[in-house]
User: Fold this.
Amino acid sequence: MATIRSRVAPWLASRSAPSAGPVRPLGPQDTAALAQLAGRDPVANVFVASQLAAGGTAVPPSSGTVMLGYFEDDGALAAACWVGANVIPVQATALHAQTFGRWLATSARKPASIFGPAEAVLTIFAELEAAGVKPVDVRANQPLLVMASDPILPGHPGLVRTRGEYFDAILPAAAAMFEEEVGYSPFVGGEEHYRRRVAGLIDQGHSLSHVNDAGEVVFKADLGAISAEASQIQGVWLNPDYRGHGLSAGYMAAVVRLALRHAPLTSLYVNDYNLRARATYQRVGFRQVGTFATVLY
Assistant:
């Protein structure tokens, strides 16, 4: 595992930086324009749409996070970019992303990750790399998958919304999933922040799991972002003791059914090299609608 001393946990805030050129931080007056922009692709932009739904404003809730907007000469909002510990472009072309990347490169920020549509993410990454900001990992090809109807496969009956009393079992399972996926502990930067994140998902009914009679977490997944139009499945984890027994497809079918109660579309993105997971998602009924990329720092 690579060193973790320079990493920032992705739920922690970063510092702000001044605006430059056609880019400036969005304010409350830009909320409607940002909602319209995100609505052009409700699957790819579900994170930002979910933030708008929760907060009702283009201004992020954390004082350490900004939403950058790229404005055309006529004042129209053409693209946006969430900039906190995570960097998430919204409807950004390569030109927009290059400008966002240069803004980041001249700021005091070092993100924990960049994720979203591949062209924009990899363009921002290239600007940061040119400025000497080196990544830990670049995942350039992550199929973005979506479902709009119930799976043909039966769902596993044990998969339900996580009950609050199972927090102490879910927390280590969630941490194990995170470390398997990104290569370092989610407790970097403070265990309490991650504990609150997991507890929040449970309290909102967005944590889904099967905890057996022995109190052991067999499977878990989260609805990490939910808007009126779409949800995004995150944090999928099957206990290693139960892998290789053909259980994943049934659990994922159950996740999709529960997710579709919240929004008419549900999505996820997956590493292209994870052939086993991709085969499972295909069996459940997901289809590819785009390509994401993730850069980890």
Observations:
- Helices lie at 31-38, 46-55, 94-105, 118-130, 167-182, 191-203, 248-259, 275-284.
- The chain has a mean pLDDT of 92.
- The chain has two domains: 23-135, 160-291.
- The CA atoms of residues 87 and 114 lie 5 Å apart.
